[in-house]
UniProtKB/TrEMBL annotation:
<feature type="domain" description="Dihydroprymidine dehydrogenase">
    <location>
        <begin position="26"/>
        <end position="136"/>
    </location>
</feature>
<feature type="domain" description="FAD/NAD(P)-binding">
    <location>
        <begin position="151"/>
        <end position="458"/>
    </location>
</feature>
<keyword id="KW-0521">NADP</keyword>
<dbReference type="Pfam" id="PF14691">
    <property type="entry name" value="Fer4_20"/>
</dbReference>
<dbReference type="InterPro" id="IPR036188">
    <property type="entry name" value="FAD/NAD-bd_sf"/>
</dbReference>
<keyword id="KW-0004">4Fe-4S</keyword>
<keyword id="KW-0560">Oxidoreductase</keyword>
<feature type="region of interest" description="Disordered">
    <location>
        <begin position="368"/>
        <end position="387"/>
    </location>
</feature>
<dbReference type="GO" id="GO:0046872">
    <property type="term" value="F:metal ion binding"/>
</dbReference>
<dbReference type="InterPro" id="IPR023753">
    <property type="entry name" value="FAD/NAD-binding_dom"/>
</dbReference>
<dbReference type="InterPro" id="IPR028261">
    <property type="entry name" value="DPD_II"/>
</dbReference>
<keyword id="KW-0479">Metal-binding</keyword>
<dbReference type="GO" id="GO:0051539">
    <property type="term" value="F:4 iron, 4 sulfur cluster binding"/>
</dbReference>
<dbReference type="InterPro" id="IPR009051">
    <property type="entry name" value="Helical_ferredxn"/>
</dbReference>
<keyword id="KW-0411">Iron-sulfur</keyword>
<dbReference type="InterPro" id="IPR006006">
    <property type="entry name" value="GltD-like"/>
</dbReference>
<dbReference type="Pfam" id="PF07992">
    <property type="entry name" value="Pyr_redox_2"/>
</dbReference>
C-alpha cells in the first residue's frame, strides 16, 4: 500500500490563512483572510489523524465527511474533495467562513485534545469550494423530472434556500417568498462582509434562480398574500423565516435617540456595501463615524456590531458584557479579531440606565459578579453593589439576541400553533406544523441558532416534505382513477 499522506500532525504545525494587518483590514469590509494557497491547504489537511471515531464529524450538525475530504485534499484530489463536501452541505464555502469551528468540528478534533492544535478544518473547507467555483466544478442546479406539484418556501435564509435547492432537484416547482429585496436572509443583511463577502452569497442565490427556483422578493406574507392564499397556490408550504425580533433592555432612558437595534445597524451597513441609498447613513442615525459607540451583548451579533463600528470610523468602541470572557457565548476568535482592531471589552458590566436628554450621551453601568450556576449550568451574573460608573456614548447598539416575531398574527393564520417561546410548534417526527401541509424549519422552530443548524434543518425537512408530497400525489391519482371507474 502506498505511503499515507496523513498523520503529519507531529511534524507539521497548525496554520491558518494569514490575516491582513489589523490597521489595514479595519478600514474596509473585505474578508480579513484569503483562502489557503494549494500547498498550505494540502499540508494542513495532511495533519488529520484519520481517527477511528471522527469527533469532528459527529459534532458537525451536518455530519460532514470531514476526515474523508481532508484526505482527498492532502492527496491533491480536490475535485473529489469538493464533491464529497458538497454531498452533505448546500453551502460549504459559507460554513467554512462563518461556522464557529472552535466550538464544533475543530473544538472536538482528536489532535486538539493531544495538544498538537486542531486541523484547521474550516479554512480547508472554504478552500475546497472556493477552488471549485474558480475551476468551474460547481455544477448548475438541474431540476428533476417534473412532478406537477408546487412548493412555497417562506423565507430565503439558509434553511429555506437549502430546501428550495433539494426540492427543485427532485422535480418540484419551487417558489421562495422573502420580505427583503435580496435573498439570503441574515447571510445577506445580518453578517458583515469582513466575515462573509456578499458575492459569495449572491452566487449561491443566482445558481438557484438559474435552476428555475422562482424568487418573490419584497414579498410579505400577511401583506401581499395570506397564508390561505399560498396554501391554495402550492401543494406544500415551508416556513423558514428565522427569528428577527430584537430583545430589549428595561432601563431608564432606553427610548432616547441614538439607542438602536443591532440588526437595524448591521442591515444599514450591508445595504450601503451593496451600493444602496441608505438615508440612515446619510443622517448618521445608523452610522458610527466619529462617535463613542457602546455595544451591549456578548454573542456573535455583538462582535459583528463592534467590528462594523470600527470600520465606520468610530471614535471609540466598547463592548459591555455581564459575564467574563470565559463565559461569553460569542466566538473567542471573533473577540481576538475585535481586540486587534481596537475594540475595548468591558467584562462583568451591565447597563442600568441611559443618560442624556433627547439623545443618548452616556451609559450608566454597574459592575457584575458571577454567583451560583443558573438553570443552564453557567454562573449567573448579579450586580456588585457600589460599583456604578458612567461611560460616554453617542451611539448605543443593543445586541441581546432575537426572539420570534408575532406569529401566528403576522401571517393571519390563527391555526398555526406556537410554543410558549413564540416559536412554531411542529411534530418532530414530520416537521409539520399544526396546519396540514405546512412545515417549518430553522430558527423559527429551534430559536436563534447557527447557520449550519439551519442548513441541517432545511435538509431534514426536505425528506419529510418529499414523503408528504408523494403521498398527496398518490392519493390524488387514486381518487381520479376511482372517479373514472365510477363514471
Amino acid at each position: 500500500m502506498a505511503d499515507t499522506p496523513m498523520l503529519k500532525f507531529v511534524t507539521k504545525g497548525q496554520l491558518y490563512p494569514p490575516k491582513r494587518d489589523a490597521g489595514t483590514r479595519a478600514s474596509d469590509f473585505q474578508e480579513i483572510s484569503s483562502s489557503f494557497p494549494v500547498p498550505d491547504a494540502e499540508e494542513q489537511a495532511s495533519r488529520c489523524s484519520q481517527c477511528g471515531v471522527p469527533y469532528c464529524s459527529t459534532h458537525c450538525p451536518l455530519h460532514n465527511h470531514i476526515p474523508d475530504w481532508l484526505r482527498l485534499t492532502a492527496e491533491g484530489r480536490l475535485r473529489e474533495a469538493y464533491e464529497l463536501s458538497n454531498a452533505t452541505s448546500t453551502m460549504p464555502e459559507i460554513c467554512g467562513r462563518i461556522c464557529p469551528q472552535d466550538r464544533l468540528c475543530e473544538g472536538n478534533c482528536v489532535i486538539e485534545f493531544s495538544g498538537h492544535g486542531a486541523v484547521t478544518i474550516g479554512s480547508v473547507e472554504k478552500f475546497i469550494t472556493d477552488t471549485a467555483w474558480k475551476e468551474g466544478w460547481v455544477e448548475p442546479l438541474v431540476p428533476g423530472q417534473p412532478r406537477g406539484q408546487s412548493v412555497g418556501v417562506i423565507g430565503a435564509g439558509p434553511a429555506g434556500l437549502t430546501t428550495a435547492e433539494y426540492l427543485r432537484a427532485a422535480g418540484y416547482d419551487v417558489h421562495v417568498y422573502d420580505r427583503h429585496d435580496r435573498a439570503g436572509g441574515l447571510l445577506t443583511y445580518g453578517i458583515p462582509g469582513f466575515k462573509l463577502e456578499k458575492d459569495v452569497v449572491m452566487r449561491r442565490v443566482q445558481r438557484l434562480k438559474d435552476g428555475g427556483v422562482v424568487f418573490h422578493e419584497g414579498f410579505e406574507v400577511g401583506r401581499d398574500a395570506s397564508m390561505a392564499d399560498l396554501r391554495k397556490q402550492h401543494d406544500a408550504i415551508l416556513i423558514a423565516t428565522g427569528v428577527y425580533k430584537a430583545r430589549d433592555i428595561r432601563a431608564p432612558g432606553v427610548g432616547a435617540q441614538g439607542i438602536v437595534k443591532a440588526l437595524d445597524f448591521l442591515t444599514a451597513s450591508n445595504r450601503a456595501s451593496f451600493g444602496d441609498d441608505v438615508p440612515e447613513h446619510t443622517d448618521g442615525s445608523l452610522h458610527a463615524a466619529g462617535k463613542h459607540v457602546v455595544v451591549i451583548g456578548g454573542g456573535d451579533t455583538a462582535m459583528d456590531c463592534v467590528r462594523t463600528a470600527i470600520r465606520q470610523g468610530a471614535k471609540s468602541v466598547k463592548c459591555l458584557y455581564r459575564r467574563d470572557r470565559e463565559n461569553m457565548p460569542g466566538s473567542q476568535r471573533e473577540v481576538a479579531n475585535a481586540e486587534e482592531e481596537g475594540v475595548e471589552f468591558v467584562w462583568l458590566s451591565a447597563p442600568i440606565a441611559f443618560e442624556g436628554t433627547g439623545h443618548v450621551t452616556g451609559v450608566k453601568v454597574t459592575g457584575m459578579r458571577l454567583g451560583q450556576p443558573d438553570a443552564s449550568g453557567r454562573r449567573a451574573p448579579e450586580p456588585d453593589p457600589g460599583s456604578e460608573y458612567s461611560i460616554e456614548a453617542d451611539l448605543v447598539i443593543k445586541a441581546l439576541g432575537f426572539d420570534p416575531e408575532d406569529l401566528p398574527t403576522m401571517f393571519g393564520a390563527d391555526e398555526l400553533s406556537v410554543t410558549r417561546w413564540g416559536t412554531l410548534r411542529v411534530d418532530h417526527k414530520t416537521m409539520m406544523t399544526s396546519m396540514d401541509g405546512v412545515f417549518a424549519a430553522g430558527d423559527i422552530v429551534r430559536g436563534a441558532s447557527l447557520v449550519v443548524w439551519a442548513i441541517r434543518d432545511g435538509r431534514d425537512v426536505t425528506d419529510h416534505m418529499h414523503r408528504y408530497l408523494k403521498a398527496k400525489a398518490r392519493a390524488k391519482a387514486s381518487a381520479e382513477g376511482n372517479g373514472r371507474v365510477a363514471a
